[in-house]
Amino acid sequence: MDDKKVSRREFLAKTSAAASAASVTAGATHVHSHEAEDDVQSEYSLRARALVSVLTKKNLIDPATLDQVVDYYETKVGPHIGARLVARSWLDPDFKDRLVADAGAAAAELGISGTLSSEFRAVANEPGVHNLVVCTLCSCYPWPLLGLPPTWYKDTAYRAKAVIDPRGVLREFGLTLDDDVEVRVWDSTAEVRYMVIPERPDHTNGLSEEELAALVTRDSMIGAERVPEPG
Ligand code: FE
Questions:
Q1: pLDDT band at 49 (very low <50, low <70, confident <90, very high)
Q2: How many Å lie between the centroid of ligand 1 and the Cα of residue 81?
Q3: Which residues span the domain enclosing 55?
Q4: Mean predicted lDDT score pLDDT of the chain
Q5: Measured in angstroms, how far is the CA atom of residue 163 from the centroid of ligand 1?
Q6: Does the predicted model carry a pTM greater than 0.85?
């Protein structure tokens, strides 16, 4: 398992109680042990399976169509889409300018279009500026560009603490920013969703656009980490 993901889970476990109290949304305090998470997941999958079974029997949904929808979110959309935008913007500063100015139009240049139902904005990290994306209200996320959101993104602890103490959150994620780096936190909504253009790692001269895209992680496009150096 990825060490960083483990540390994010541990972060959630530690801060869940305090953050729930500070959260802008009302709701039960979640316990984030791995066991509790598994229980919640299985409860939701049981409910989902029961719903599918009832709706299929009533001829309200077609299981084949449902399979197509699931396949779309599991295999067609994902962080590899956002990574293409990032890699192109690293190689082409004019494209990066267009991406920041009008992300939908820039994405359409790469044939990524038609699925962005919400307005979508790209915010660029640069020396002295680090961007972090959150949805304080629920879990709004640029699905067509980044695929399924990570569990921690939807967690009350992250949603509350990201706006109160973003540096603390990043530190606990393993990213310590210098004091003179400005942290900008972007609160997503159903209307506007954000993606971070992370900074290009140092030792990537000569890499192709495809190779660069392969380096870009999902979490770096949320602002939760830097893109790791290759190798
Ligand atoms: Fe939301």
A1: confident
A2: 21
A3: 8-61
A4: 84
A5: 14
A6: no
Residues 178, 154 within the same domain = yes
- Residues 161 and 86 placed together within one structural domain of the fold: yes
Is the four-CA dihedral 69, 119, 86, 92 of positive or negative sign? Answer: positive
Residues with CB under 5 A from ligand 1 (ion): 135, 137-140
Tell me the per-residue pLDDT of 108-159, one tens digit each, with 9 for 90 and over: 999 887 555 678 999 999 999 999 999 999 999 998 899 889 999 999 999 9
Distance (angstroms) between ligand 1 centre and the Cα of 230 equals 33
Task: Check which CATH number belongs to the domain holding 108 and give it.
Answer: 3.90.330.10
User: Over the stretch 146-183, which tens digit does the pLDDT of each residue have?
Assistant: 988 999 999 999 999 999 999 999 999 999 999 999 99
Residue 228 lies in a domain: no
Of residues 225 and 70, more confidently modeled? 225
Q: Which two tokens stand for residue 105?
A: 């139009």
Residues 19 and 125 in one domain: no
Cα distances from 72 to residues 36, 65, 117, 186, 230, in angstroms, run 28, 11, 16, 27, 29
Helix H or strand E segment including 183:
strand 182-187
Instruction: Give me the sign of the Cα torsion angle 119, 120, 126, 129.
Output: positive
151 and 42 within one domain:
no
Distance 5 CA to ligand 1 centre (A): 22
The domain total for the chain is 2
Examine the domain organization and report whether 202 and 107 are in the same domain. yes
Q: Looking at the domain assignment, is residue 106 inside a domain?
A: yes
Which amino acids are annotated catalytic?
Answer: 135, 138-140
Rounded distance from Cα 139 to ligand 1 centre (Å): 4
The whole-angstrom separation of Cα 75 and Cα 212 is 20
Distance 101 CA to ligand 1 centre (A): 23
